[in-house]
Amino acid sequence: MTSEGVSESLPKYNTMEVIPESLSTPMTPEVAPKTLLMFNVMAATPEFHVIAAAPELAPGHLTATPEGKKVIQEMNAQSPSTATIFPTSTVIITSSAEFQTSTRTKPVVIRNLTVSEITTSSVFLKWDEPVENRSFFKLQWTGYDSNEILTNHTTTSNTSYNITGLTAGVNYTFNITAVAADNVTEGQPIRISVYTKPDVIMNLTVDNITTSSVSLNWTKPNGQSSHYRVEYENINVTINETTEKTFITINNLIPGSQYTFKVFTVAADNVTEGRSDQISHYTKPDVIRNIIVSDITTSSVFLKWDEPIGNRSFFKLHWTGYESNEILTNHTTTSNTSYNITGLTAGVNYTFNITAVAADNVTEGRSDQISHYTKPDEIKILKVSNITTSSVFLTWEEPLGKRSFFRVQWTDEQTFNNTTTSNTSYNITGLTAGVNYTFNITVVASDNMTEGQPIRISVYTKPDVIMNLTVDNITTSSVSLNWTKPNGQSSHYRVEYEDINVTINESTEKTFITINNLIPGSQYTFKVFTVAADNVTEGRSDQISHYTKPDEIKILKVSNITTSSVFLTWEEPLGKRSFFRVQWTDEQTFNNTTTSNTSYNITELTAGVNYTFNITAVAADNVTEGQPIRISVYTKPDVIMNLRVDNITTSSVSLNWTKPNGQSSHYRVEYENINVTINETTEKTFITINNLIPGSQYTFKVFTVAADNVTEGRSDQISRYTKPDEIKILKVSNITTSSVFLTWEEPLGKRSFFRVQWTDEQTFNNTTTSNTSYNITELTAGVNYTFNITAVAADNMTEGQPIRISVYTKPDVIMNLTVDNITTSSVSLNWTKPNGQSSHYRVEYENINVTINETTEKTFITINNLIPGSQYTFKVFTVAADNVTEGRSDQISCYTKPDVIRNLIVSDITTSSVFLKWDEPIGNRSFFKLHWTGYESNEILTNHTTTSNISYNITGLTAGVNYTFNITAVAADNVTEGQPIRISVYTKPDVIMNLTVDNITTSSVSLNWTKPNGQSSHYRVEYENINVTINETTEKTFITINNLIPGSQYTFKVFTVAADNVTEGRSDQISHYTKPDEIKILKVSNITTSSVFLTWEEPLGKRSFFRVQWTDEQTFNNTTTSNTSYNITGLTAGVNYTFNITAVAADNVTEGQPIRISVYTNPDVIMNLRVDNITTSSVSLNWTKPNGQSSHYRVEYENINVTINETTEKTFITINNLIPGSQYTFKVFTVAADNVTEGRSDQISHYTKPDVIRNIIVSDITTSSVFLKWDEPIGNRSFFKLNWTGYKTNEILTNHTTTSNTSYNITGLTAGVNYTFNITAVAADNVTEGQSIRISVYTKPDVIMNLRVDNITTSSVSLNWTKPNGQSSHYRVEYENINVTINETTEKTFITINNLIPGSQYTFKVFTVAADNVTEGRSVQISCYTSNLDKTGMFVGIALGVLCILITITLILFFYSRRKTKEKCSEIPFHAIR
Hints:
single chain, four-stranded antiparallel sheet
């Protein structure tokens, strides 16, 4: 042989086939229609493997042929050096005239393999053509996706190929090999590795946007990736951040700025990146700072604030107020940091929100807000009306302007109450009766803080009426009154009543009183009034009417007592009465009635009961009763019931009765015996009377006796006979099978007739006779009868003691005598039991002329030691139980059986016939009877025939059946048969049918088949296991083969074996795989919200691949893998998945036992976590349920350095017991239903509200300042915010400040104004505020100015002055008149003082009074004289006036000089006298 294309001639052959190197593929006649020759030339030794297929062979049967061997010999002779010249050669036998060999060298390796156009799912490969020849290129590529091997291959004739269907982000290794034209020979492969581009991320979103950070979230892309690169610009600098997670938070951003974020997926080589996905968003603008409210009017507010940090486009202003049911709301925008809001409504609380807005006109920063009120007006004229014990109705006029509501306050100097109302009237209820209340009405602005000047009035409520007025301790001449203290207050009580038309009053400070000296039986009405502490005001009276008790009844009598009634009479009591109340009781029931008479018949009483009767006189009110009179008496007992007699003897009688209705103590029994009356007593309802005369009639009377042992009821009576005496000497005669004759002697005493009774213990019969003998007939034969004879008294009922005798009737003859179980030497006799009864049987027969007797108690007997074939006559007699009496005999004759045959032989056995042969039996016989039987399933196969010969061929038998053949000699009577001889033999069994396999396990296979035709004993199963032939047997049509190798193929042969354990039928066979072994140690790792990575150990034995199945009980998924690991993706977060891994055998059908594991995917992170309902000690968290499923949530936070965990099934929770004013960070974890698996947490931080400050104190009040001091609140705080508001006419005076101290001196206030101060603790975030504490106080009013006197008359002086700075309610003018200090008030700046003494000097002091009517400013005073009645007086007055002026000037100069000396700055006005 030479190189390719060179050939040498060989002999011709008819078949053409190209043969591969492998010999494992079986060849069939379809591919080799005539003769197929295959051989392979090996490298070391020229060894040829030849297989020839002849066309006459069945498919699948290949064999070697001599022709094939000859070809090989010729080839070896012509080319002995083939193996050494060509290491690998393929021989081709063709149908042409020559035989040739082709030799192909391996192609050279390809060159310059390059990769281009890499995408997420494809790679373009290109290479240079190899130097040598090639047929095509084989391409193989392998990658790893998680723990799954991604492998594939293809072929191409080109020097480039675009590989598609790849997984993104995977490192693929590509092998390219040139293949020769034989499609087998391959060159050296060339290899290159490259990553596909990672896929683009999905669902890029932005959340948790703050002023300086943005959180990005996205979904993991398809395919593989190492990490992610996030790119963005910040202050013109490109910044890159990386993360391995699908989320990232970008920090240190500028508030209110726009950012574009690009997210790239990066492959594991840290170089290859996928296409980016991007999103743009603004950070939130920062919150504005230092918002200030100024220039507040009734319709406008001026707002000013500082520019926020960072960028912003403009500010959004929104304000809201509420007037009645109308919402006053508006909004605007501005680019400035101040704005004057106009068009507001007076007295309304407005909340102003200012928010910085980014340039996208959407993103807003956190709002800052401030609330303020416009100024309200004041109240006018308070009136009181409709005063009751618990309410006062107040009305007043509506103040000018707007207001929110009125605060109504009232006090009784012990309790202080307040309420609010929107009306100009209010009905104050719930007051205490009889109390002096002071009422204050104040108008309140809508801030619930600003209050107007209160108006005050005092009034008493009316005392309340007493409660629960009752009368007790009523006698014939006195009544005690009791009552409950009324609600409210009172001083004492007045009791009013009339006695003999005279009104009488009595008083008491207690809640009870006793009224004496009243008239018995008279009605009185008592009125009780509550008197207030002023001893004048009385409440409404409560009254009660009552009678005094009537007098006691005298002399009560009882008559006409029956079992159910008593007649009572009595005398009339002294005094008045309306009627009598009659009451009676038996200590269990209580009854009463009334009557106007002095007698009464009481009926429907219970017999024999002790009744107590009470008679009471009742006054006209039908209630008041006098002292009762009492008497007790028994009713007569009732007659007994159901009197009966039992246990009668010849000398005694027992009486029984039912207890009578009513009650009783005992019973008396009366009867006569020998003309003597006898009495006996008993407490029971029965008694036995003894010592009576036999056979005599007695009458018994029973009386019921009451508990007093005197009162007796009506008697009941009964009559009875005593029993007669016993019969003596009973005799029996004339006994037959059906009759007996009885005789006896007359008994002592009396009798009417005799009762004759007889029984055989099963039937009972009786008759009567007056004679002393009786013939009883119609008896049963052979029965033992018992006869009783009894004497009966004249009442035909009472019987004496019976006499008894027993005797047998004669037995009857047997019936139905038969013979069976005849043998050669014995006969069995059977008969039917005769009528009647018997003890046993006697059998009589002759044997060899000798009479023989045998006995038996049964109805059968076997007679032995007889002569075979002889005739016998047997007589059977019935014997009674006394072993003496015999009945008439019955007889029968029969033959014994002939002898058995001998030496039975079987030959010529087939599946359907058997040949039988035997010897002649000893003795005589007529012919032979043949019978054969076999069993097939539950069917009996039987047949029979007769023959006179001593051999017979039996045909038509069933295969595999064990037949039993019986041969019997028959006697000359053609009836009696000898003992058969028996032989058993099997026919040959058949082959089994329908061989199947089921119940396949890893180490066992269950075979099933259909039972073959015919019979069989068991089955032998043959198979090979590890090259060892194994045999197993079974009697069933199924068997389980154990100890097999998992996942292996076995061929099982089943043979049918006959019952002799030797004969076998033809085998049937079947092939099957055992189940692969169960996977061991299934582990779960790398659990995420959407994937689970499974690993497991290789099972024992063999397997082809693994089937992976998973389910969440709603959806079912599966896949296959050849590896022992698999990454399952696309799962739902927080769901319990069950994973099944099953090994599959090489037939791709047989599966092993699955291994199962259940695991929860990680729950997803919650969304939209927020805080609301913040208090000083609690925070309410709310969030949105995460994607997927979850069981509950775990909230983690620290409190006093202790980590605390709380759980909830809801998407909200309230955290309690927190420290006021403290910052807390709350982490919320989603927990799966296994209570173990938790998702990634989301967290939020917030401050609790600071606690309210305590014990605020006001001191150092001046006209323009107030000093406030308070205690530190519980918990933490950063600083305090102080707000104060006052009202000056129509102007609201408001301001605020902050301080870190617990005290503050507020200055710049207006004199005489009621200021409300609010102090609030603020947390360290400068936003969270606690509950405000509030206190109101007036500044001192300022001193009046320009006090002067004019219009002086002889009795009056007019004063005028200028209103002081600040606010005031009115003015108080103080002066003395006749050594009495007099005060007058005025709301005006002038007043006229009247009723002065002419020509007298007065000094008037004027004080400014604040609206609380308490706070007063410093006074200013002036002195002057009233005019005299004449001119002299006038001149004197003028002189005095001039003198006063001079003194004043002198004083002014004096103080001025002192001021200059002391360098004081204050100036003393001429009208200010200090």
